[in-house]
Structure formats: C-alpha cells, structure tokens
Specification:
Number of helices: 6
CATH superfamily of the largest domain: PDZ domain
Number of domains: 2
Number of strands: 12
CATH architecture of the largest domain: Roll
Order of helices and strands: EEHEEHEEHEHEEHEEEH
Helix content: 25-40%
Length: about 260
C-alpha cells in the first residue's frame, strides 16, 4: 500500500494519479509504502506515461470523452423594488418555505398542469421544510390532497392544518412525488410567524416577469439537450471505469516493481 509520495500523504487512488501526473518523466521519486504491516521507503523513476499506459493495457490506452457543451447563460430574474403578490413568506419557525405563483411560461417549463401550483424559491436551512426534503425549484401542486392554485391557497392550507403532519404533492424534474411536512401548533407560533402576503405587482413588473418566463421557455430545448449530453458523458465514464481502474492498478504494480529494482 502506498502511503506517501515525496513526503506527501496519499489519501486515494485519484490523488496518487494526480500527484504522479505532476511529476516530470524521468524524475526519481520517494515512496513511503506499507508491506505486510511494515513501513518501507522506496525510490522509483517515472517513465514516459504513454509507454507506461501502453504496457499496462497491452495496447495504446485511450479514453474518448465527449466534448462538454457550453451551458447557455440563464437570464437573471428582474430586480423588483416593491413587495410583490407572487411571493408569500413563511418563517423557518413555521415551514421555512418561500414560494411564488407560476406564470404560464414557468408552469410549462416546470411541467405542471393548467398552470396550477406554487414555485419554491428557497428553503430555510434547518427548517421543517428542509427536513421534509423540499428543494428550491420544486412546484407544490397539492396539500393534503387539495389542489393549490396559487400562494393564497397554499397559505390557507398550511394555516388550517397547524399542529399536524400534512402530505404535500410536488413536481420535481417533471415527476410528481409526495413529501410530509410537520407543522407546529398555533401556540408555538406568534404574529411574526404568520404568512405575509404582499401587494399586487404593477403592470411593468408583470411584463418583466413574463419576459423572463418566455426566455426560460426559449432556453428549455438547449437545457434539455445539455442534460442529455451530460447523461451520456456520465454513462461513458461509468462504462470505462473498470478499464481505467485496471490500468491504474497495473501501472502502480509496475511502478512498485521498478522501485524494488532501484
């Protein structure tokens, strides 16, 4: 077992591979190894990596990795200086969720039916919602089996079920699943913990939101294509992993054998 390389601790095969890669061919290195439970110090000279890999695999070693696509830049959400009705806030003492109503474009993007549901903008760290498994980007469509059309429905559903555990149906990655949210008793909360609903958006802000939703919808094909290429890349890496690990083990064995001969 290799413990150190040039005095630096080796914690994993990946780290050792990186450390070897950083040493120029022909350089002599010092290895700290453990053999039969006894620490030993060995010297080894690195050979040309192309020759080493050729020896390890018996043929030229080549890993073909697909070119990674450039992720298109997502448009920034508009800065709105006034409170907006699309946002309803629950403090971490209640649920820890910040949600907003869906525009038609966002509803299409997230895969909800008839534009129903509210979008989770953020989840407070350590909150009941985080413990229940909510993520930013989830779309809440039902609470306790009742349809949630907007933030008003969601706020009412939580207020009417304080002190209980309620099933909450969400859409994540365009698939529906159910989480269980535990709500505190009314006596555990106070006025500051109540839901806060804010005034309506003005027309300019609504138009800006509509444009943002349209831009997200426009980018959807590119995002989906990127996701497919990332999935294919991951499959290729997993498929080649045994070959890579085998060649690495053989290379290390040859490396140690050469060290014994010095």
């Amino acid at each position: 077992m290799i413990l150190t390389l040039n005095g630096q601790s080796v914690e994993s095969v990946e780290q050792l591979r990186r450390m070897i890669h950083e040493v120029p061919p022909g350089r002599i290195v010092t290895l700290g190894v453990s053999r039969n439970g006894q620490p030993l110090t060995l010297k080894a000279q690195l050979e040309d990596r192309k020759q080493a890999f050729g020896y390890a695999s018996g043929k030229p070693f080549k890993v073909v990795v697909p070119t990674m696509p450039v992720m298109p830049a997502m448009p920034a959400m508009p800065d709105i200086d006034v409170p907006v009705s699309v946002v309803v806030v629950h403090s971490s003492m209640r649920s820890g969720l910040m949600v907003e109503n869906l525009t038609p474009q966002l509803a299409e993007f997230f895969g909800t039916k008839n534009g129903q549901g509210v979008l989770v903008r953020s989840v407070d760290k350590g909150s009941r919602a985080e413990k229940a498994g909510f993520h930013a980007g989830d779309v809440i469509v039902r609470v306790n089996g009742e349809t949630v059309n907007d933030s008003g429905d969601f706020s009412h559903a939580l207020r009417s079920r304080q002190g209980s555990s309620v099933p909450v149906s969400i859409i994540r990655d365009k698939r529906e699943q159910t989480l269980t949210l535990n709500l505190p008793d009314r006596k555990q909360s106070n006025l500051l913990n109540e839901s806060i609903e804010t005034p309506d958006l003005d027309e300019e802000a609504r138009e800006e939101l509509r444009r943002t939703g349209a831009e997200i919808a426009r980018l959807q094909p590119e995002i989906e294509q990127y996701a497919k290429r990332m999935s294919a890349y991951g499959e290729e890496v997993r498929r080649r992993q045994p070959e890579i690990e085998k060649s690495t083990r053989e290379l290390l064995n040859r490396f140690i054998l050469r060290a014994r001969q010095l």
